[in-house]
Design goal:
mainly alpha, 0% strand
């Protein structure tokens, strides 16, 4: 499978998983998110983190949740960066790690600024 096909396939799997999640079918969502994550889809990795964090398919598993969030954050997923920073800062599931929290929040800020620059370079985008 070439890179473009893998990307499209991962997004299709992500969408199918999201639909299952919205319908409360968390096992099916987990299945599709896992397949999309194996293809490198960062949002699928992040969504898996939520499934594990909230125990949607059984027991809560904070280690798996953190692993998924961290993997997605390493792929520049802003939502996952927020979750990793939050977990590290507040020590929700692990010992507090202010250094990692600071590092990941700086990364999140950089991602946000890049997004703003991209949007404001488009003349049809208006900030209110």
């Amino acid at each position: 499978m070439n890179e473009d096909n893998a990307f499209q396939r991962s997004n299709d799997l992500l969408d199918t998983g999201a639909e299952a999640y919205r319908n409360g079918d968390y096992l099916t969502a987990q299945k599709y998110y896992t397949q999309a994550a194996k293809l490198g889809n960062a949002q699928a990795m992040c969504n898996l983190g939520y499934i594990y964090e909230y125990g949607r398919t059984g027991q809560r598993d904070y280690k798996k949740a953190f692993y998924c969030f961290k993997m997605a954050a390493d792929k520049d997923n802003a939502e996952a960066c927020y979750k990793v920073g939050d977990i590290c800062f507040y020590g929700d599931a692990f010992k507090k790690d202010y250094d990692l929290a600071s590092h990941i929040i700086k990364k999140l800020r950089k991602l946000q600024m890049n997004w703003i620059r991209m949007k404001t370079s488009n003349p049809t985008f208006i900030i209110v």
